[in-house]
Each structure stands twice: as structure tokens, then as C-alpha cells.
Fold this sequence. Notes:
Blueprint: H1 2-21, E1 25-28, H2 30-40, H3 42-64, E2 68-77, E3 83-86, E4 99-102, E5 107-120, H4 122-189, H5 195-230, E6 237-240, H6 257-263, H7 265-286, E7 291-304, E8 314-325, H8 333-399, H9 405-439
Parallel strand pairs: 1-6
Antiparallel strand pairs: 2-5, 3-4, 5-7, 7-8
Helix pairs in contact: 2-4, 3-4, 4-5, 4-7, 4-9, 5-9, 7-8, 8-9
Amino acid sequence: MKHQLHLFAFCLVWAFQVRAQEPSVYNFSLNEAIDYAQKHQNAILNAQIDENIAKNTVKQTIGIGLPQVSGSYSFQDYIDIPTVIIPASFFGKPGDPDIRAKFGTKYQSSVGADISQLLFDGSYIVGIQASKTYKELSVRNLKRTRIETAVGVTKAYYSVLVNNEQLTLIDANLVRLRKSLEDTEALFQNGLVEKIDVDRLSVLKNNLETERENVVRLLGLNNNLLKFQMGMPIQMQLTLKETISSLQMQPVTMVSDTVVYQNRIEYGLLQTRKKLNELDLKRYKSQFLPSAVAFGNVSRSFMSDDFSTIFSNNFPVTSVGLKVSLPIISGGQRLYHVRNAKLEVLKSENDIHDLKNAINLEVSMAQTKYTNGIQSLENQKRNMKLAKEVLDVSRIKYEQGVGSSLEVTTAETSSKEAENNYINALYDMLINKVNLDKALGKINY
Length: 445
């Protein structure tokens, strides 16, 4: 009992120590978030398991051509020894009753071993090649999963950054708007402005506070989405190191179509699938060839009517042989297997051609959207700056008594609309950048 208590206490202390070593809050850059996802995302972990399964499948297929050895042992107790009827004519006495004789012993036992070795089989040779290609396919599938995970994490990371930028702008507007409301209320108390001036600013402030609450909830949702894309438990806390201002958008350099194809994992996957279909065709063709197997058998039989002396009488049996199988007629099955396999290869070639066109279209669309996104973002930045200047001028005119509160309210609304347009343009530009990098095959893991 004491040993059990000591063991329980040790496990408890160890668990607390391990727990204490885990950070309570993760603070990641984009690259760190992607690296975390590469190690914890279940889709990647399953793809790694599939790769290991493919490796085992290759070894399993190779094992078919290695020597096969099996052993056997049997024991029989004949309660009734088999009876054989021998015709009397066999002894030259036709017409006499047939002789009923029992041949064998009460106890019989045997032990033996069988060994076989595949000498030639066209399907086996092709199967070895196909299993290695299958392994190559699993490696490419793992790479595709890593790329898709990196894309998902990047987009989710950018969404959180955009929400943070939006929240920063809203907070700055709230500070300015609350100050304006306080100043306007003071002027109203002194009878210098009307009640409607205070109400207009109050409406703007209330709307902005409501919008802020919505953005905070959206930020939490996007943060959880980022953790989900990373394979991080949702209950963990995650903050981001980077901000919108710290992002460095590198100019995109276009590459030739051939390079794009080779960089795209989807193209490599179709090439591997085509190779598998070609090997399948080769396998069906090999079924027209003969196969040869060498085999051997060693056994020893034990017989006796007395169980205590069963192993005294033993008789060895040894044999070796060669079996050659030659397919002759299969009702046309092999022929149609070959024809269908040729059609599958043709389909693979069509899929590759279609993918090339799709990649060209995807690159063209991504390039156009990214270029438009950059121009739109620059334009929205200028609009936001101009709207801010108009708002400042409107406020100065209002404070000096040469402007109206409606003019200030209109400028506030326009400034807020310009900020929203800027946020939308910023998000679109970042997402379009990720899509363009993916289209060009620049995201590799």
C-alpha cells in the first residue's frame, strides 16, 4: 500500500512539473504559428501515419518474393481404424467373400516443414515498383497537407491581425469621439449649441461602441479559428507577435509556366497517379507471362498401436519440386483488364492537361486580384487620410462657430466609412497575397 501511495505521489508531482513547464500563454509570429501547426495539426499527423503505412506496404510486398517457410504438426488417435475391402479375386479366389482388412495403426503423428521460393512472376516485379510509387504518393500527400495547413494558418493569422488593426482604429475614434461629446455637452450646458448637436454625437458614439463589441467578439472567434488551424487546443491562450505595420509584403516575381507546374504539389500528385496507372497497365500485361515457384517438403511420420512407443517407428518423407503456371484461356478477362488500364492512363494524361490549364487560370486570376488589391489598399489609405483631414477641418470650423454640427457628424461618418473600406481592402490584399503565393507554388514545407 505504501509503495502505491509513493507511486501516486510521484506521478502527481511529475504531472504538475510537466504542466508548469508548459507556457500559459503562447506568443507566436506567423512562422512560429506555422511551425507549431506542422507538429500538432492532426491532418499532418495522419498524413505522416499514412506515409509509414506506405513504407510498411513496400516491405510487405517485397516479402512476397522472399522464401516462405511453414511448419506443421499433427496427431491422430484412430478409435476405429479404417477398414479396406479387398476383393477375393485379388488372391485368385473368385466367388469367395471379400476380405475386410484394417490397415494402419491406432496412433499416428507427423511433423513437417514446407518451403517455397518464387522464381519468376511478372506481377510481383511490377508490384514492387508500384509499392514504391505508392510510397512516393504518400510522401506527396503529406507535402500537400503541410502546404494546405500553412495556407490555412496564414489566412487565419492575417484575419486576427486585421481584427487587431480594426480594433485599434475603433479605439482611437472612440477616444476622439468621447472627447468631442464631452466638449459639445459643455457647450450645450452654456447654451452655445443645441440639444440635437449632443444627440448626433451620442448616436455616433453608441454605434461605435456597439461596433467595437462586435469586433472584439469576432476577434475572439478568429483567434479560436487560428488555434484550430494550428492544432492547438481552443482553451489555450494565444497572442500574436506581429502587427499589420510589421508585415513586409515582398514584390511578386512571375515565373515561367513550366516552373509553376513543377512547383505545384497537385501537378506532382497527378504525375505520380499517372505512374501508378502505367504500372497497373504493366501488371495486367505481365499476367500473360508464366510464373515459376520452387518448393520443398520435409516431414517425418510416427506410427504405433501403443502410445508409449509411437515415436519408436518413424518414416521420413522428403520432396522437392518446381511448379510452372502458364495462363492459357481466361475468357478474355486479361485482355479487357489491359484495355481498361490503357484508358486509365489516357484519363491521367487528360487530367494533367486540364490541371495545367487550371493552374494558368489560377495564377492569372491571383495576379490580377493581388495587383488590384494593392492599388485598392493604397487608394483606401489615401481616402482614410483625406477623410481624417476633412474631419479635423470640420471640427475646427465647428469649434470656431463657422461650421455646423451636421457637418461634423457627416465628416465623422465619412471617416468611419473610409476606415472600414481600408480594413476590407487590407484583408483582401493579404488573402490575395497568400492565394498568389499558393498559385505560384511558393509555399513549400
